[in-house]
Structures are given as C-alpha cells and as structure tokens.
Amino acid sequence: MARHMAIYRADKQHGVAWITGGGTGMGYQLALDLARDGWTVAVTSLTENPVEPGAEIETPGLPGKILQYHCDVTHEAGMAAVVEAIERQTGPIVLAVFNAGIYIPVHGQALAIADFRRTYEVNVFGVLNGLAPVVPRMQERGRGHVVINASVSSYLGWPSAAAYGSSKAALNNMAESLRYDFERMNIRIQVVNPGFVDTPLIENINYRMPTLVPVEQAGAQLARAIRSGGYETAFPRRLAWTLKFLRLWPGDLAFAFMKYATRKLRRSPIPGASRTRSARKRPG
Questions:
Q1: What percent of the chain lies above the pLDDT cut of 90?
Q2: What spatial distance separates the first Cα and last Cα of the chain, rounded to whole Å?
Q3: Phi, psi of 47 (to 5 degrees)
C-alpha cells in the first residue's frame, strides 16, 4: 500500500516568506514573529518606500530580516512584478501570506456598487493577483505554502458587512476548492479566520467589539497557525465557535439572535471613536 506523504510545510531553509499588507497591523506583527524565528520576510504594502525596493526594515536583535516593497494588490501586473523582484533579489517564495484587506460599510438604504467592487478588488482579487504569479513557481519547485487571511464574518451575515463578509466567505470557499489541486502539487493551503483585531483599521467602528484581540496576539496566533499547518484556524475561539454553532440553527432563529446581539452592541459606542464613513476593516 502506498505510503501517505505529508503536504509541504514552509521551511526558512528553502526560501523566503512574502506577506501582503505587511507594512502595519497583523501583517507586520506576523513579519516580526517570522523574523524572530530566523525567516527572511518580504512585506508589501501601499506605503511608498522612499528607498530602493527590498530595503531592510531595522529589526534589532532579531535573527531574521524584513524587506519592504511597495505594491497595490489590485494591480495584476504589479503583483506579478513584485513576485519576480522578491525572488530575483531575495530567493524563492516558499511561504505566501495574503493578508491585505479593507472594510467598507454597506447599508441597505444606500447601496453603492462601487463599495462592493472596491471590496472585492482588494479582498478577493488582491489574493488572486498574488496566487496567479506565485503558485506556478511553487508548482515548478514541487513545494509551497499559502495562507489566506479571511474572517469569522464569513460564517454569518453581520450588519453593514454585506461586502466585507461576502468577500471573506468567497475566500473560504475558494480556498476549499483550490485545496484539491494544491495538495496534488505539494502546496499547503491554510485559511485563517480572525475576529476583531485591535489595529488602526477598526478605530472608526462605532460600537463595542466582542472579544477584541490585541494585534500582537493576533500576529502570534497567525504564526502559530503557520507552524501547526492545520487547514483552518479561527480566533478568538469563543467568538469563532459561537458563530459556528449559530450556523447550525435554523436561518430565521440565527438571524433573530444576531439582530438582537448586534443591536445591543451598537448601543455601546467606543468612547472618542470617529463616526466618519471611510474604508476600514471589520473582523479579520
């Protein structure tokens, strides 16, 4: 009988890690954790780099290093170019973490197609624009490791998250479908579904968020997920398992519960939070 072979798990001895949306927040915390483990990490973000692409970010005392690149995940050609630049300058990408994402609130009273389009351009096509150039390289080398940052909001509909939540649900479904082919190519794929993470992207949310996770803890959770290699990681567990449990309820009952729970949350605004309408991130 043929022996089952484990799917590849990223090893810093084989190449480098690449994180989109890695200039700030959870992506940057993950970069620090990986550099602490000795990885060379290439991070891409929208922030223009005043020096040459691939310039090193100072990380005193860490055995690894973090290199910064500028790239907009919505630009297909730009993403292909940055993958080529990272591999040419630094080494083969053996770990690709697709972390970049945005949250734009959507309300049924004022539906705007542009809000949905922008959300999907960043959250869904931003992942595809990275997968398309990096996966063939992994396939050619016979190994690779892909991580997609989605959200617990993909489990159930949240108020004002029609665009964001559906984009994250699309990522979960897409990853499940790609997993069949990726595993045949010896490419591990993982999905991470975080809850509310304490980053500047949630400053304008005008209600108290349940089980808010410090960004340092979220980055550490993401790093642990990569090391463990399991297909899905969701945190914090209390929120994730509550939402998973609610998915088992009849639809009308689950909706009534969420309607009641989020109504209570909206009555507890965060002190000093701005209420301006802008692109910002919800859970994950």
A1: 58
A2: 42
A3: -70, 125
Quote the Cα angle for 194-195-201, to 5°.
95
Which CATH class, in words, describes the domain spanning 16-266?
alpha beta
Query: Are 188 and 9 within 8 A, CB to CB?
Result: yes
Name every residue whose Cβ is closer than 8 Å to that of residue 227 and which is 6 or more positions away in sequence: none
Structure tokens belonging to residue 145: 């490791």
Give the mean model confidence (pLDDT) for residues 201-224.
72
* Sequence-separated contacts (24+) of 224-227 with Cβ below 8 Å: 225/147, 225/190, 225/192, 226/10, 226/95, 226/97, 226/145, 226/147, 226/190
Which pLDDT score is estimated for 276? 31
Residue partners of 16: CB distance under 8 A and separation at least 6: 39, 40, 41, 42, 86, 90, 91, 92, 93, 94, 95
Amino acid identity for residue 245 in this structure: F
Q: Could you tell me how many residues make up the chain?
A: 284
Element (H or E) spanning 33, and its range? helix 25-36
Q: Which of 79-88, 191-200, 245-254 has the lowest mean pLDDT?
A: 191-200
Q: What is the pLDDT of residues 29-71, one digit of tens each?
A: 999 999 999 999 999 988 765 556 778 887 888 999 999 999 9
Q: In 200-209, which positions are buried (b, 16+ CB within 10 angstroms) versus exposed (e)?
A: ebbebbebbb
Minimum mean pLDDT among 58-72, 180-194, 248-262: which range?
248-262
